[in-house]
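3.2 Worked example (two chains)
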Amino acid sequence: MCHRLDDVMKLCCELSANQQIQTTVKGSGKGAAAAGGLAFAGGLVGGPLGIAVGGAVGGLLGCWLTSGQFKPLPQIIIELSPQQQQKLYCSLLAVLGDIQWTDLAQLTALVMGNATLKQQLTATLLGYISKELQAQVDYVD
């Protein structure tokens, strides 16, 4: 059973890597507020040049405040606790149904060859990430 859980977690990593999905932990608004607030303050103090300086300083502050909050989804999956992985595994098994596989390569081929199954698994994965981890999911262009 343990290898099956590992296979499904690795499949999730593969699915999210193929679609370039990344998650944002709540709090990215702090960075935007810092950048905008300092640009505004700079504009009040220094006019147009103050806006530029305040925006640059605010942008750097915003970057620092939100560092580490944007992660690729495969990294999030790898960092899940065993209990979280088990809960995700159970959700995904409900979608996989009675599909049988012997190894990760076979499971990946079965899923990647079936667009509907791939979409359902991705939706279940993203739903879990959004609901259980309270993370915002973004697609990288």
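3.2.1 Second chain
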Amino acid sequence: MSVNEVFVFRPFKLIALLCVFLALCLDVVALLSPAWVTADHFSLSLWESCAQSAAEEAQWSCFSTLTSDWQIATLVLLVAGAVATLLAFLVALISLCRGTQRRHYRTVAVLLFTAVVLQSCALVLYPIKFIDGRVLRTYHEFNWGYGLGWGATIFMLGGGILFCLRTDVYEDAMY
């Protein structure tokens, strides 16, 4: 590099990798979360539904939610999105570490956009079918597990967009 040459380092791909890592972490926590829907004497997660009996305040009875078709579909869509995100993270990490960066960016972006579509379908399906199937006579709310699912989806989308940016084309034209 001579005195007149300037090198501009834009860390878009590292930020994208960080977004994908955060999305993966949020997705795992959302999948394992015990609180997707809560009410006064009711709690629903992806794995089990718990209700507190009216007679005894301390007695909770829980049963598996994997008997309902829509809950299984939601779980499958979320797990498929998490697997696509994990694959995208591994491909991006390996390509950044080996220096074959530009070759695999499109693959990573496609995997992330696929995960966004899968997650979005699951996160839209869940409240629609929950409200359609159950009429809770008390106030209920979608809790932090559901919110973490949307947070993971937003980070996946951000990572996919950042992996689509082609900064090398603009830099070569400027210098």
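3.3 Remarks
The beta strands are 37-39, 42-44, 48-52, 60-64, 140-142.
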